[in-house]
Amino acid sequence: MKKRTPVSKIMSANLVTLSSIDDLTTAEELFKTHEIRHIPVVQGEEIIGMLSHTDLLRVSYAETVQEYETEVDIVLNSIFTIEQVMTKNVVTVNASDTIKEVAEVLSTREFHALPVVENNVLVGIVTTTDLIKYLLEQY
What we know:
Elements: E1 18-19, H1 24-34, E2 38-43, E3 46-52, H2 53-59, H3 69-79, H4 82-85, E4 93-94, H5 99-108, E5 113-118, E6 121-127, H6 128-137
Parallel strand pairs: 1-2, 4-5
Antiparallel strand pairs: 2-3, 5-6
């Protein structure tokens, strides 16, 4: 196993992002369409938050009240904004940080994705799934 491999080797660089002015219905559609669980919230190229699918479910009744899904989405979007639901003060890692350093952060915190930045510009995202796939490739 290479000990100094940078996280940029395993991160996802094909980013799906949201803006704080997007609505929660847009976020829900992105989660479903791209089959992802975390979406960075950006202002320009700078990360200002992170929205997880769990965050959305926490404030949504859409998953449990299927027959009223349209009405729930309308109410949900009129009550909550992305900025209210997203995680602020996001922990980030640098593209040059090693996979080991990133694994240490993820193993000691309660989240499963980290935005990857270079000079304060969002360049990728790394998830626990990315780490597991990397470890499996080593065997």
